[in-house]
Write a structure and sequence with these properties.
124 residues, mainly beta, Thrombin, subunit H, 2 helices, 10% helix, 50% strand
């Protein structure tokens, strides 16, 4: 099955959550960035960011879902995958974006919201 078939058969959920991500560039340097998701599916995600890994790069994502009013705890999703494509300009954002095909994903409860993380407070 090719990647375009996978992208068309999974349901995409329009979730905008904070995303941290890591990859190794062609020179062997470890790189990282921050952005937010445009959508998430069981097969991957689309991330809007300033600094995007190149197509074909292995990437790790960490997405943060804040706690809900109904008492559901904050969640963290960790995804390992490959960058399928990079879009040079995402309409309405001024940023670029990249699509990730997931190899593996893990969802777990998390004790703090995105805003409670130290680097999130520093940016505010």
């Amino acid at each position: 099955m090719n990647t375009s078939t996978i992208a068309r058969t999974t349901i995409r959920f329009p979730l905008q959550v904070s995303v941290d991500y890591w990859w190794t560039d062609n020179a062997g340097r470890h790189r990282q960035g921050e952005g937010h998701s445009r959508d998430v599916s069981e097969g991957g995600a689309f991330v809007i960011a300033v600094d995007c890994p190149p197509p074909g790069a292995s990437v790790e994502l960490r997405m943060f879902f804040d706690a809900f009013a109904d008492g559901t705890r904050a969640l963290r999703m960790e995804v390992e995958g490959r960058v399928l494509r990079v879009e040079p300009s995402v309409v309405g954002t001024g940023n670029r974006g990249f699509a990730v095909l997931s190899n593996e994903a893990m969802l777990e409860e998390h004790d703090e919201s995105y805003e409670d993380r130290p680097h999130a407070r520093e940016r505010a």
